[in-house]
Amino acid sequence: MLAYLVVLAGVTTALHIWKLPPALPALQAELGLSLVESGFLLSLVQMAGMTLGLVMGLFAEKIGLRRCLLLGLLLLSVASAAGAVFVDKTLMLVFRAIEGCGFLMVVMPGPALIRRLVKPNQLARLLGVWGCYIPIGAVIILLAGSWLLSMANWRVLWWLLTFITLVVMVFAWRALPSDPPRLARAERSSVWRIIGTTLGAEQIWLVALCFGFYAAQWISVIGFLPTIYSVAGVSGPVAGVLTAVVAGSNAVGCYVAGGLLHRGASARTLMITGYVTMAATAFVAFGLHMPVPVQFLMILVFSTVGGLIPTTLFLLVIKLAPSTETTSTSIGWMQQMSAAGQFAGPPAVAWVATLAGGWASTWVFTGMCALIGIGMTLRLGAKLKARG
């Protein structure tokens, strides 16, 4: 099914997003990166999402969803190859920012392309598969990428991902149907009207903020897991495997959510279940000073059940977009809030941990995010009920 090719493109972009963490020690040694420069290298992808999500959604709507996806894959492959050839820390930051743009150009049109390619009664199930692209990419890189880096230079990984991305781009170019003809000028809305309609819709703000507060929790816990395990005395390789398992478990929740929505489950129920579970398991894992095996189990449940949220929001943003031509900009705004959450979450958790003298208060931040998410979900549920 062609929709799975779109999912494959999403997974390919996730490989580029997650390739940096396992390669960072080698890059720091070779390029002389400071801790601050390393932090910028890690966060530049999210910076692109924070600033360009809506713009990329508009760009996708104007040039065509298929064209945007193909250009994004091309941009990712070129930036990855350039990073392997021009080894300089300033250029590396530039190429990372370009990769962030390529990532957005693929993921912005992804859900709308899937809607175009499948029957309406299959949409929820396929969006459940689409929601897995980030955790699947994370698991592949954290396991296979780390293994490759133990035997080869980081440039080999960059070149390998360049080749994989180009192969996926060629398959997509040959297999995905062309974008439909653009509307006549008189029938098309202006740029400002599309933006105004998107940002003027309360339901789009609610969906986007729900995603932001979910993403802030998930990335904060997953991102610091190796550090948390290190403090607890768990060795580096074992900590890496445990982190990969937790990240991958999120894909299970995403996939299950698609099936439940396909069977008529309530979006509000799935989201509240996700937020409540994330708050409760984070409290048990960090607030009660549990041993490492119990902590791991709680974080595994945190990530798995939390996966109910992103798939549900992907479906809601498509259904609640004010019009067909604002679908991509609505997804773009949701992606922008997600990136903001991923950008702000880890520093916030690190700040709380610094004040508390350890990770025991992590649950305070995740709990606050969950409570805000529940409140906005209830408001969103009221909007959905009013729409019938």
From TrEMBL:
<keyword id="KW-0812">Transmembrane</keyword>
<keyword id="KW-1133">Transmembrane helix</keyword>
<keyword id="KW-0472">Membrane</keyword>
<feature type="transmembrane region" description="Helical">
    <location>
        <begin position="68"/>
        <end position="87"/>
    </location>
</feature>
<feature type="transmembrane region" description="Helical">
    <location>
        <begin position="156"/>
        <end position="176"/>
    </location>
</feature>
<dbReference type="InterPro" id="IPR020846">
    <property type="entry name" value="MFS_dom"/>
</dbReference>
<feature type="transmembrane region" description="Helical">
    <location>
        <begin position="204"/>
        <end position="232"/>
    </location>
</feature>
<protein>
    <submittedName>
        <fullName>Putative MFS family arabinose efflux permease</fullName>
    </submittedName>
</protein>
<dbReference type="Pfam" id="PF07690">
    <property type="entry name" value="MFS_1"/>
</dbReference>
<dbReference type="GO" id="GO:0005886">
    <property type="term" value="C:plasma membrane"/>
</dbReference>
<feature type="transmembrane region" description="Helical">
    <location>
        <begin position="270"/>
        <end position="290"/>
    </location>
</feature>
<feature type="transmembrane region" description="Helical">
    <location>
        <begin position="238"/>
        <end position="258"/>
    </location>
</feature>
<dbReference type="InterPro" id="IPR050189">
    <property type="entry name" value="MFS_Efflux_Transporters"/>
</dbReference>
<feature type="domain" description="Major facilitator superfamily (MFS) profile">
    <location>
        <begin position="1"/>
        <end position="385"/>
    </location>
</feature>
<feature type="transmembrane region" description="Helical">
    <location>
        <begin position="38"/>
        <end position="59"/>
    </location>
</feature>
<dbReference type="InterPro" id="IPR036259">
    <property type="entry name" value="MFS_trans_sf"/>
</dbReference>
<feature type="transmembrane region" description="Helical">
    <location>
        <begin position="126"/>
        <end position="150"/>
    </location>
</feature>
<keyword id="KW-1003">Cell membrane</keyword>
<dbReference type="GO" id="GO:0022857">
    <property type="term" value="F:transmembrane transporter activity"/>
</dbReference>
<dbReference type="InterPro" id="IPR011701">
    <property type="entry name" value="MFS"/>
</dbReference>
<feature type="transmembrane region" description="Helical">
    <location>
        <begin position="93"/>
        <end position="114"/>
    </location>
</feature>
<feature type="transmembrane region" description="Helical">
    <location>
        <begin position="296"/>
        <end position="318"/>
    </location>
</feature>
<feature type="transmembrane region" description="Helical">
    <location>
        <begin position="339"/>
        <end position="357"/>
    </location>
</feature>
<feature type="transmembrane region" description="Helical">
    <location>
        <begin position="363"/>
        <end position="382"/>
    </location>
</feature>
